[in-house]
C-alpha cells in the first residue's frame, strides 16, 4: 500500500512538471448551481443566472481568465480554504461569522429581503412553528434564534418540497429565490413580512489572497459606478434594492 | 427532432427532447463514471487487501504490524469521516510534496490561518488546467480513497480465508519439500478464494451501494444528477418546467441499483461454483457427488 502511495505521489509530481510552464493565472469560481436566479444549471448543464453574468463581467473588468466550478453548499467554504477554487460566488451573504474564516469583496447586492413561503391560505406561527431553511445559511441562523423549530435541508429545492409535503409550516429564504416559485405555482404563496438579514451578498475569497479580493472589489465598484450592476439586478432580481 | 421550442411540443416528443438535454446527458455520463469507478476500485481494493493480508501474516514483525495496523485503523474509523477527511488530506499531502520539490525558496508559511497555500506551480492540478483535468484528478482521488477503505475490509476477509485453508493441505505441501513461498503461492492462495468469496461478495455489494458517497468527494454522480434533475423547475429558468419529479428519478436509480446487484449475484454464484470444484469442503463434496 505504501509503495502505491509513494508511486502515485511520484507520478503526480512528475506529471505536473509538464504543465508547469508559465501561464496567466486562471481564477476558478466556485458556485452551488442550485439557487435560481442567483446561480443554477441551465438545460445544457452549464452554470447560469445572475452570478454567472456578473462573474463573467467582473473577470473581464479585472482582466482575469475565469472558470466555473460547482460544489456542494455544505463544503463550499472548506474547499475554498483548501485551495480547490479561488472564489465563492454563490449568493453568499456577508456575515461576521463567515468573515472569521474567509474574506469578502465589496457587496454586489444590497442586504436582500428574505421572505417566508407557505402553503396558500395557511396561517403560519413564525415564532413557534416549524420553519425550513437551507443548512448553513443566514436564514437558518435567524430561525434558530427566533424561537421557531428549525428544519434544515442540504439544498434549496428540498426546503420547498418540505413545505409542500407538510413537513414544515413555511420556508425562509431569499425573496428573489422564492418569488418565481410563488408566482408560478398555485399551491404556495409568500406570507408574512419580509425580513432583512445579512450585509448583502459578496464574493468569498481566501484570507491570504488579498490581491484577488482587491481586484474583484475594484471591478464590483466600477460596475456600481457605471450603473451596469443595477441593470443586472433589475434584470435578474426584480424587486431587489439597487445601489 | 427539433427541440428549439419545447413549449409547443407535447407528450412523447416533449419527453424525447427533455430526456436529451445537456443536463440529462451529464446524468447518462455519470452512470459511466460510477461503472468506471467500480471497475477500477474493485481490483485495486483487492490488491490492497491481498497486500494487507499477506503483510499481516508475515513472520517479519514490523511488516505484520503494518498490515494489522492498516486493517484495524480503517475498519475502526467511520466511513464518512474517512471520506470527508481523507480526500482533502490526500490532496494536501500531494500538493505539499510538490511544493517541497518545486518551490524550495518559497518563504511564506503553507498554513495561513484557515488557508492552505502552496505556490502556484505546486497546485494539483494546476489552476490553469482545464476543468476535465480537475475532474479526472478528483476521480482518481476517489478511486484511491475507496480502494484504501475497501482494501482494509478485503484484507481482513483474505486474512481469515488464508487461515481457513485446512492445515493438512499445508502439511502435505511441506512434506513434498516445498518452500514457504511455494506453499503460499501454489497451495494456500489457490485454495483460499473459496473461503474468501462470501466475504468478498458482501464487500462488492456494499461497494456498489457506497458509490453515492462519490458526491461527498466532489464528483457529480448519478444521485447528484437525479436530485438536481428531479427538483421542481420554474419556467423562468428552464425550457422544461415541471413539478417535483424526484420520485421518478429515484425510482430509476432503484431499478438501476437492483438490477446491478442482481447481475452481480448471478456472476458471483457462477464464480463460487467454479471455485468450489475439487475443494475439500462440503460444497465441493456435494458437487463431486452430483457429477458422478
UniProtKB/TrEMBL annotation, chain A:
It comes from the Bacteria. Residues 26-239 form the Ionotropic glutamate receptor C-terminal domain. One of its GO terms (molecular function) is ligand-gated monoatomic ion channel activity. The keyword Signal applies. Keywords: Signal. Residues 1-20 form the signal peptide. Gene3D superfamilies: Periplasmic binding protein-like II (3.40.190.10). One of its GO terms (cellular component) is membrane. Residues 26-240 form the Solute-binding protein family 3/N-terminal domain. The keyword Transmembrane helix does not apply. This is Amino acid ABC transporter substrate-binding protein, PAAT family.
Automatic annotation (TrEMBL), chain B:
It holds the Pfam family BPD_transp_1. Its main location: membrane. It is a multi-pass membrane protein. It comes from the Bacteria. It is found in: Cell membrane. The keyword ATP-binding does not apply. Keywords: Membrane, Transmembrane, Transmembrane helix, Transport. The chain crosses the membrane at residues 25-48, 69-90, 137-162, 183-207, 247-268. Residues 31-268 form the ABC transmembrane type-1 domain. The keyword Transmembrane helix applies. PROSITE patterns: ABC_TM1. GO terms for biological process: transmembrane transport. InterPro entries: ABC_transp_permease_HisMQ, MetI-like, MetI-like_sf. GO terms for cellular component: plasma membrane. PANTHER family: ARGININE ABC TRANSPORTER PERMEASE PROTEIN ARTQ, CATIONIC AMINO ACID TRANSPORTER, MEMBRANE COMPONENT. Belongs to the binding-protein-dependent transport system permease family. This is Amino acid ABC transporter membrane protein 1, PAAT family. It comes from Thalassococcus halodurans.
